[in-house]
Design goal:
The complex is a heterodimer. By secondary structure, chain A is an alpha/beta fold. Helix content of chain A is 37%, strand content 11%. Chain A contains eleven helices and eight strands. In chain A, helix 3 (101-118) runs parallel beside helix 4 (137-148) and helix 4 (137-148) packs parallel to helix 5 (172-180). Chain A starts with 8 loop residues before the first strand and ends in a 14-residue tail after the last helix. Chain B has helices at 42-51, 89-97, 119-138, 155-165, 190-199, 224-244, 247-250, 266-280, 291-298, 312-322, 341-344, 351-366; strands at residues 21-26, 102-107, 144-149, 171-177, 203-206, 256-259, 299-302, 327-328. In chain B, helix 4 packs parallel to helix 5 (190-199). The longest helix of chain B is centred in the middle third of the chain and has 21 residues, at 224-244. Classes of the chains: A alpha/beta, B alpha/beta. The interface between A and B is large, with 71 and 67 residues.
């Protein structure tokens, strides 16, 4: 295995909401009443069935409750074990599946307040992502502005499969707010299930949905690039979370070829897709959809033609690796330092607000 | 790409000195709107005149995303006698087959009866296209071989069409498109695979088609380029479905060809499938072996449009991971993103790999002597 270094940033951990009722203290009287009167059930998404092997590494599965529900477990399993300087919390709770924009907004606000009180306030190493629903762009922008006042929020969190492709112009006010507030947009695996989870329809299996996340990321990158998001917002960073990255080089070869062929269709795309990805797009490390040989993985990093694209992640508590093998075999010490420390800090400007090291536990 | 085609005398043409190649993706077109009518019952001729084809998309004619060029084809490929690009055998011979010494050309007709909501009409049109391929193309030029097009959403009728054509040496494969009502591994399509396996014919899955599903899992995008690039994601999802539904396990002699959807994605998709399968195989016990093994043994890829990295050696890593024995050269004639045979592989590729890439793999797969 490749040795980790202390002081790393884990860019993708998932604190679990124990149950919808856990959000009741953070909801208004009206929404609290709606949840209880209507008998609403827990918003667990099909993307991560609680007992699915992918959803939790066997070593990290608690005896009771959901994996990732207890701060003490997260501290023991990753924060302390890997001697992290900080970890970015990306709550995956099914608020995006809701169809009413008012209800989705109420749940997002409650979820963000819950994250502050139950997690960020209880361990100074934790940072948060602002969860918003895209049902209403106006409400999403308002929520970003509300949460951004707390410097511990370092990113905005979206899902990779939603109602529309992410490059669509109607969403751009969100990107303008994020750029202005120095918040990268994190795009995480998962679906609102408002569209079939593959571009060829509904498959039969959970494994099919999971494999299909990678194709969803590919279509979103195309949308973001060709709609011109980064021509309008050149300082905006986007982070693909739990996306896999071994697909990236061949995907870009194809996109680049077609862009050269039909760029007259999208003349506002002012740089080659390869350049846009190198300057504006980042990828979390796990899952590494790795080839059988470490030497092949190193060739893949060569194909990426940049050592700045990948950010360390454990994807806790999802089961991506065994034991302490959070880094794939064969990485050089230089690349490990880039992935674990330099690249995350270059991507998330708000990590500068970390307390000095001696003040940390 | 467009190529300026200059008149030259037959004796000046260096045809016979070029190495023979196979072109595994040629698109023959109809010269007129009614060219299929002699092969269609009166009822269907009338139906087409009154109602059109009623596809899984809204346009009465043409594609929902306007192409970059008329008919998505080279501007220099209009036949001198008139008609759209790809509709003249003599001009195809002159522009593609002769100068490139194409000794095997696989015809993949598009805009046939596939992706039509009326399944009876779909079957009638597909059968007509199959007759038309023999009459207009393969009986007139022995280098050309046809694909059996089938009404893709009605598996039983499609299987009957395959059995009807089985053993006819004009045909070398069954043709499906990647985008259907459901992912291609679903049971409604299994009769097609069973019939193809029995007939010893590979099933080609060409990019495109309409099945009613948005071309991204987040809905409909804005641009033609998103559809073009998106075909490779559709193909990945279709192949994942075929593996995970157990199609390769159930039909172990079935061979499938991924046509015009790229091949660079194949290694990473296989690694991702393997990793997910190790975790989640209890959900799919019918998938008995690591997914990458089925793909390595039962899937081929056509080359056009070749992925185009900044450094060519990167592409050769990927080809090595897929296997030089699994790629089938294709031009996509007469479409605009045509790959010119002489420019696809640079110097430095071994003679054996070059020969397999341009001809040997196709010859073996399609059983051409």
């Amino acid at each position: 295995m490749t040795s980790l270094i202390a002081g790393g940033v884990d860019c993708d951990v998932h604190p679990a909401v124990p149950h919808l009722t856990s959000l009741l203290p953070y909801l208004s009287d009206y929404w609290r009443d709606q949840v209880t009167t209507r008998g609403m059930v827990d918003l667990v998404s099909q993307s991560y069935p609680a007992r699915s092997p992918i959803t939790a590494c066997p070593d990290w599965r608690p005896e009771q409750g959901k994996p990732g529900e207890h701060l003490g477990d997260m501290q023991r399993h990753v924060l302390d074990l890997f001697q992290l300087s900080c970890a970015i919390c990306n709550p995956l709770y099914g608020v995006q599946m809701v169809f009413s924009e008012d209800m989705a907004d109420a749940f997002c606000r409650a979820l963000n307040d819950w994250l502050v009180k139950e997690w960020l306030d209880r361990d100074p190493r934790l940072r948060g992502s602002i969860v918003v629903s895209l049902q209403s762009v106006e409400k999403a922008v308002a929520e970003i502005e509300r949460c951004a006042k707390d410097p511990r929020f370092v990113q905005v969190l979206l899902l990779v499969m939603g109602d529309t492709p992410l490059g669509k112009r109607a969403l751009w006010p969100i990107y303008a707010a994020a750029e202005r507030l120095e918040l990268p947009i994190g795009v995480h695996a998962g679906s609102a299930y408002h569209n079939p989870p593959t571009a060829v329809g509904w498959g039969s299996y959970h494994i099919e949905d999971y494999v299909g996340q990678a194709q969803a990321f590919q279509t979103q990158l195309t949308s973001l690039i060709v709609e011109g998001v980064f021509a309008r917002h050149p300082r905006l960073k986007m982070v693909m979370l739990e996306s896999g990255f071994t697909w990236l080089p061949p995907y870009l070869w194809r996109l680049h070829k077609f862009w050269r062929g039909v760029r007259m269709e999208t003349p506002w795309v002012d740089r080659a897709p390869l350049e846009i990805v190198r300057s504006n797009i980042r990828f979390s490390l796990q899952p590494v959809d790795a080839p059988p040989e470490p030497a092949m993985l190193n060739r893949l990093f060569e194909h990426m033609q940049s050592d700045e694209l990948v950010l360390f992640s454990t994807d806790y508590p999802h089961w991506q690796f065994d034991g302490q093998d959070a880094l794939p075999e064969g990485l050089t010490p230089d690349l490990v330092r880039k992935i674990m420390i330099d690249n995350p800090h270059a991507t998330y400007p708000r990590l500068k607000e970390l307390p000095p090291k001696e003040a940390r536990p | 790409m467009n190529i300026q085609f200059r008149e030259r005398t037959e004796s000046a043409s260096p045809l016979t000195t070029k190495t023979a190649i196979a072109d595994c993706d040629i698109h023959p077109a109809r010269a007129t709107r009614t060219e299929l009518y002699p092969y269609l019952a009166k009822r269907w001729q009338h139906h087409l005149e009154v109602y059109g084809v009623h596809a899984y998309q809204g346009m009465m004619e043409g594609p929902p995303y306007p192409k970059a060029q008329p008919n998505a084809s080279r501007r220099d490929a209009y036949p001198p006698e008139g008609g759209p690009q790809g509709s003249s055998l003599s001009f195809m011979q002159k522009q593609l087959l002769d100068p490139n010494n194409v000794q095997l050309g696989v015809l993949n007709p598009l805009n046939t009866g596939q992706g039509i909501r009326n399944h009876e009409l779909s079957a009638a049109l597909c059968s007509a296209v199959n007759d038309w391929q023999i009459d207009k193309w393969t009986s007139k030029d022995k280098r050309l071989k046809a694909s059996i097009v089938v009404g893709n959403e009605d598996g039983m009728t499609a299987a009957a069409e395959i059995r009807e054509r089985a053993g006819d040496k004009n045909f070398v494969q069954v043709l499906l498109l990647s985008r259907n009502v459901e992912p291609l591994g679903q049971r409604r399509y299994w009769p097609i695979y069973q019939a193809a396996e029995e007939a010893g014919l590979p099933v080609g899955v060409h990019a495109f088609g309409f099945g009613g599903n948005p071309i991204t899992p987040s809905g409909w995008p804005s641009y033609y380029i998103e559809e073009m690039v998106g075909h490779s994601q559709c193909q990945q999802s279709a192949l994942a479905s075929l593996v995970l539904e157990g199609v390769f396990e159930r039909f172990p002699k079935l061979k499938m060809v991924m046509i015009e959807a790229g091949f660079g994605w194949a290694p990473s998709l296989a690694w991702r499938l393997d990793k997910a399968w190790q975790r989640l195989r209890s959900e799919v016990p019918h998938v008995r072996r690591p997914p990458s093994e089925y793909i390595r043994e039962q899937v081929w890829w056509t080359t056009q449009p070749m992925e185009d990295p900044e450094r060519r050696e990167d592409l050769f890593d990927v080809i090595k991971w897929i296997g030089w024995d699994r790629l089938l050269f294709a031009t996509d004639y007469p479409h605009w993103d045509y790959d010119e045979p002489s420019r696809v592989l640079p110097a430095g590729v071994s003679e054996a790999n070059r020969a397999a890439f341009y001809f040997g793999n196709a010859q073996k797969l399609y059983g051409i002597s």
